[in-house]
Amino acid sequence: MKIKKVDIYNYRQFNGQSIYLEENLTFIAGANNSGKTSIIELFNRILGESKTKISANDLPVIEYHDWLKQLLNIIKECYEIIGDEKSFIEELEKKFDENFDEEVEKKSLKVRIEVSYKDGEIIELFSPYLMDLDNKTYSFYFVYEYKFIKNKFINLLKKQFNKCKEILDHLQTATEDREQQIAEKKILVFLDSILQQSYQHGYYYADKEYSVLQKIEDEKEFQKLFHYKHIWASRDMPDEKGDKKKKTISSAMIDFIGNNEWENIFEKWPDMLLNEIDEDDIVKKITESSLQQLSTVIQSISATNGGRKEQLVVDTDVTYDAIKELLQNVSNAKYQIGEYKFDEETQGLGYSNMIYMHLQLQKYMNELKDEEMNKKVNFFIIEEPEAHMHPQMQKAFVSYLIDLYENQGMQGMITTHSSEVVRVAGMKRVRVVRRGSEPFEKRICDMHAFLENLKSEKKDLADNIEQEYNILFKINFADLIFADKVIMFEGDTERMYLRSLLQKEIYTKLQQQYIAFVQVGGAYTHWYRQLIEFLEIKTLILTDIDYEKEHNNIEIIKESYTSNGGIKDYYYEQKKIVSDKSEKLLIKDLYSWQASRENIINDYIMLSFQGEQDGYARTLEEAMIAKLLGITVETQMTIEQWKEKKKEQKLAFSIPKCDKKESLDIGNDAVDTELADEQEVEIGVREILKATSNHKTDFMYSVILNQKEEEMLPYYIKEGLEWLTE
C-alpha cells in the first residue's frame, strides 16, 4: 500500500497543489521558508502524529481575512435591515442560503489522499473504504476537510448577539475617524473569534472523482491505516561536553534497546539494583543519617509546634520506575576505538546526526516485522537529513537512504535545501517548492512530470532526452532549484567578473537574493529554456554574439552572421520562425531584436549579448575595453598609445610586438615590421584581445584588483542586470 497522490487546497500558502509520490522516496526541495516544513506538519496533523490539530491559523492568510471581511459585510447588511435578534438571525440565514455553499467550499481547507495497491497485496484494513467496484481501479480515495459550518457560525453569533449588537451600534454611531477605526477593529476581533470556532474537522472516503463522500466517524480509524513516523530537522545534537539536555544519541539508543530483543535484559536491571539496596539496608541508613543531620532543625520545630510529635526525616522511595529513570539518566552512548571510549559530544554534529537518524530508521524497520504493519501504508519522513553534514557525507548518506527505502519496500519523503542531496536524488524523485505568482502563494513543481511531458512531446528522442537532462541535472539543474534568479554565462572570466561586480553597492537588491550562477556554452543555453519556464525562474543569459573574428568594420559586421546556436534557437522561436541550424542569422537583425527588447522571452528569460552600444564588440573583454576607453572595434591606435593606456589603466592585457624582421597580423593583412615604428603601426581592440587570448584570467584579475568593474561595465550586461533586478 502506497500513497500515490496528495492534493492540497487552502492550506497556508498551498492552494490547488498536488504532490505525486514515488513508490519509495520522494524529495521535497526548496529554499528556507519555502513551505517544506508546512508539508510535514500537514502530514503530522492529518495522520495523527501530532497532538496539534489543523486550525483557522492554517488557512491562507489573505483568503481568511477576505473571508472575515466578507462575513462582516453580510452581518452589517443584515443588521442595517433589521435590528432585533430574531429577525437578524432569519435575515442572516437567508443570506447564507443564497448560493453560499459554493463560497463555503472555496474557504475550506481540504486534502485529498489517494492510496494505491497492487495485485496480491493485503487490503483488509482498507476494504471497508472501497467505494469504486471497478476491477481496473487499484486505489482508495480519502478526504480530510476543515470546513466552515454555517449553522455553527449562526448559533455562535446568536448566543453572543448582545455583544455583537453593542459593537455594531458603536460602529454606526462613531463620528470621528479614530473612534470608527477602534469600533471596526473590535468587530473584526469579535467576528474572528466566532469564525475560528465555526470550522469542523472531517475525514471521509470517496469515489475516484471525489464527488461522493462518506464520513469516517472516528478519525483514529483513518489514522490506523497508516504506520507513519517523521524526524524533524531541529534535532538537538550534543555540541558541548556535559550538556545533559542534549544526550540525543544516548536517549535514542536506550529507547531503541527498550524495544528490541535486549528488552528482557534491560528490564532486569531495576530488580537487581532493588535487591542490592534491600540487602545493604540502605534505606534505614539514609533515614538515620538524615535524623542526625537534621537534629537542630527538629529541636527548633518541637519548641514551636505545640508539643506535636511529628519528626522531619528524609525518606527514600526506591521504586522500579525511579530506578529505571536513573539508569536512563546515567546510561551514555560512547564511541570506542580499541580500549578507548569517547563521549558522544566528542564527535562532529554531522556524525551524531547521522547516527541518530540510523537509530530512528532501524527502530521503525523493526516495527515493520509485525505482520499488522504490512497491511498499512508505511510512510517515514526525514526533514533535512543534510543538517551539519559536509557535501561528501550528504552524498553517501542520501545514497544509503535511497537504497534502504527501496530494499525495505518503504515509502517516505525527504525535505532538503541542499543541492548535493538533490543531485544524488536524481531528477525524477524531486518535487520543487517555489513561489507562486501571488504573495503568500507556493507552487509544487513535479520534476518527474516535467521530464515525462518532455518525452511525450518528442517521442522519437525520449531516451536521449531523459539521459541528457539527467546529466545536466547533476551538473547545473540542481543549482537552479533553490535560486530566486539565475545568471547564465559562458566562461570562467565571466564568472569572475560577475561575482565581483555583484558585490558592488549598486546591486544591493540582487545581493539579498539567491542568484544561481550557471556556466553553459551558448549553444546549450536553449536546453535550459523548458526548465526555466517550468520553474518560473527569472533568468539572464549572457552570451557572445559570435560573428566572424576577422571583421572589424561596422558595416561589414552588420551584414555578417552569428555562429551562436543558442541565440539562433531563441531568436527563431521568439519570432515563431521554423528554422534549422544551417540557416544564417544576420547581426543587424540581432541588433534590431535587442533594441526592441524582443530578446525578453515569456517574462522569464532575457538573452543579452554585445550590441551597438558596446562598440560592436563580439566578446566580453572587447566590450569592457571599448566601454573603458570609449571606442569601437573600428578604432585604431598606435602600439605606443596602447602601451600608455595599459600603464594608465593598470590592466594586464597583451600588446603585439613590433620588433624587426617580424610580421604584425592586422586584420587580413600582414605588415612588414622591419622598418615599422611603434608610433606608426595602428591596431584595434581585436588585435589586443587576440594577443591576450591565452591570458584572459590575468586580464580579469587586473580589472577586479583595480576595482574597475563598474567603470568597464558593458551595456549589454548593465541592461541585463537592471532587468534582473526589476
TrEMBL record:
What keywords sit in the KW lines? ATP-binding, Nucleotide-binding
The record's listing under SUPFAM superfamilies reads: P-loop containing nucleoside triphosphate hydrolases
The UniProt record lists the keyword Nucleotide-binding: yes
Question: In this protein, which residues make up the domain named Endonuclease GajA/Old nuclease/RecF-like AAA?
Answer: 1-422
Concerning CDD domains, the annotation shows: TOPRIM_OLD
Q: Which domain of life is it from?
A: Bacteria
The keyword ATP-binding belongs to this UniProt entry's keyword annotation: yes
Q: Domain OLD protein-like TOPRIM: where?
A: 481-546
The entry lists its GO molecular-function terms as:
ATP binding
Classification via PANTHER family: ATP/GTP PHOSPHATASE, ATP_GTP PHOSPHATASE
Q: Can you name this protein?
A: Predicted ATP-binding protein involved in virulence
